[in-house]
TrEMBL record:
Organism: Shewanella halifaxensis (strain HAW-EB4)
Protein name stated in the entry: HNH endonuclease
InterPro entries: HNH (IPR002711), HNH_nuc (IPR003615)
Keyword check for Nucleotidyltransferase: no
MF terms (GO), sorted A to Z: endonuclease activity; nucleic acid binding; zinc ion binding
Domain (HNH nuclease) ranges: 194-252
Length: 270
């Protein structure tokens, strides 16, 4: 897929996600709305292209847009004003075709009978242009953060902890029997080629722990291994963001250690 990135507020969203994942205790109430009360089970799948991390980014972005909407003074809203709402500025920047909110209001029968705040959310949340904005923003954020293995390890550890804490509820979700063991751990499954390619190119064809070349061009005996950063045995997910590229030796060492690990060493552009 080719991404036509505009990076409107994208780095802001990246910063928020980084802060939340690095201080998950402070944001425990908010995070519960993402994976708590059994919601974690809706995220169980075999390497979905719309990854668990995509779902988390969507959750954060939509939460922020909702909080920003709550700051609008609907009691004193002037539909005759020429100014744009913050969300409309985002539509404009991305070149997304949309209907102005004030034009939507004019289409309603009588402003006296309209609760403007309700009209705003009806205009926004049911629209294709809002969905397009969310999709574009999520893809841009994912594009940047997929490069950050340490952040992805942190995220996947949080998700694994959540699954483990809710493991006693697994009996309710009988539809997941093909995906989860009786101990509520993700079953091992085939890693699709698209996921391997994404991880291979992200990690530059080198073991992320010892920097050994795994391209097969320098040494045909160096075999690529795709490792779950948070092991399935530790409630890790079958998700592209939970994979990293290791050599055979490092993969065996991480399995014996039993704890999630990666490196923050990256090859420079030049």
């Amino acid at each position: 897929m080719q991404l036509n990135a505009r990076f409107y507020e994208t780095y802001y969203f990246c910063n928020v996600i980084n802060n939340v994942l690095n201080d998950s205790f402070t944001y425990a109430v908010e995070l519960n709305d993402f994976y708590g009360d059994g919601r974690v089970f809706s995220l169980i799948d075999k390497f979905p292209k719309q990854s668990v991390f995509h779902s988390f980014i969507t959750f954060v972005v939509e939460t922020i847009y909702s909080e920003n909407s709550n700051k609008i003074d609907f009691d004193n809203f002037d539909y005759r004003s020429s100014g744009l709402l913050p969300i409309e500025k985002a539509f404009e920047y991305h070149g997304i075709k949309y209907q102005l909110f004030k034009e939507h209001l004019k289409e309603l029968c009588s402003l006296k009978d309209v609760f403007i705040e309700d009209a705003y959310y009806d205009w926004l949340l049911a629209s294709q242009y809002y969905e397009d904005l969310i999709t574009q923003t999520v893809e841009e954020v994912f594009y940047l953060l997929f490069l950050n293995r340490e952040l992805l390890l942190n995220f996947n550890q949080i998700m694994a902890d959540s699954l483990e804490m809710q493991a006693s509820d697994v009996s309710v979700h009988v539809h997941l029997n093909d995906l989860l063991t009786t101990r509520c751990k993700n079953k091992r499954c085939h890693i699709p080629q698209w996921a391997k390619r994404a991880v291979y190119f992200r990690d530059r064809g080198r073991c992320v722990l010892c920097d050994k070349d795994l391209s097969g061009k320098l040494n045909i005996n160096n075999l690529e291994n795709y490792d779950h950063m948070v092991a399935l045995a530790n409630y890790g997910f079958n998700d592209v963001t939970n994979l990293q590229l290791l050599c055979k030796e490092c993969n065996q060492n991480t399995k014996s250690a039993g704890v999630g690990s990666t490196s923050n060493s990256y090859q420079g552009w030049y």
